[in-house]
Specification:
mainly beta, 5-stranded mixed beta sheet, globular
Length: 334
Amino acid sequence: MRTPIGVALSALVALAAMQAFASRETAPLAATKPIVQRMQINSLAQSKTAMLAGGELGHLTYSRDAGKTWTPASIDQNRQASINQISFSADGLTGMAVGHEGWILRSTDGGLAWKEVNFQQRNGEPLMSIARMPSGEWIAVGAFGRAIKSNTDGSNWQALELPPSVEDKHLNRIAGSADGRQWMIVGERGLVLISNDSGASWRDLPPFYNGSFYNVASLVNGGWLVYGMRGNAFRSSDGGNSWTKAQIPAPISFFAHSQDAQGHITLAGQGGMLALSTDEGQSFTLRRAGMRANLTDLLIQGKEQAWIASSTGLHPLPPAPAAAVKVANAGASQ
């Protein structure tokens, strides 16, 4: 009796082994969204070699085919600190990215690879914005009045001297005029700083609004537009000496903009809302972007393709007849 039972058991084991190693079709895996559709994106930029997106957990990705496919950029240090802005110099190859914990990264190949040039693991303030001065010097600004400057390669950073009125106010954005001579820094509690010598010295403007400004735009006619909380935007046509309130029909906070050669402006902001102006920022009409997320940046790839960054990822934005858009220019800072 034992022999037949043993033979039967051996046969069962052999059959199980054959089943285990037999070839079979693998069920298809569920489609995975690209990372740019699964993370908060804070900044978009166009370099000479690629379109860049940066955001949460230190992600920097690039596309070399107008956003069809995305590749993670090479970063020599994985800090997992949020990237807040990416900016390139006029050559479209040299760029800096800034983020939380005082993190600063530098690229010399248009954003395909990045090298850390600054990081403060302890007591590092978030850096919100960075720009390259005509001298080649870089200036970065951020939370609690943090402002630093560096030589051309970012190897050494030191404090930037600002007026005492800055105190501990958050500095949200730095931007320059088209000719590079006049610059502005905007921030918390209505702070507006101006430089008339390409960032070498700064002074504060008399306050004209007590809420936060999130961004500033140099207008094509030589004026300025500052904007931020609850639909508050102000326009200056005399180099910042006087300001007029723009007409925006809803109390929506705005964070980013684009602009075309005719001075048409698009603001992107809270709750998936866009504000469009065809009179150089004097008045705006509202349009929904098709999502409820907060909109954090805009980038235009030619006349037919617009991209919008948000708290829910990167989305294409179909052009609207009244939309004011700025054609992406390699190396142009936003």
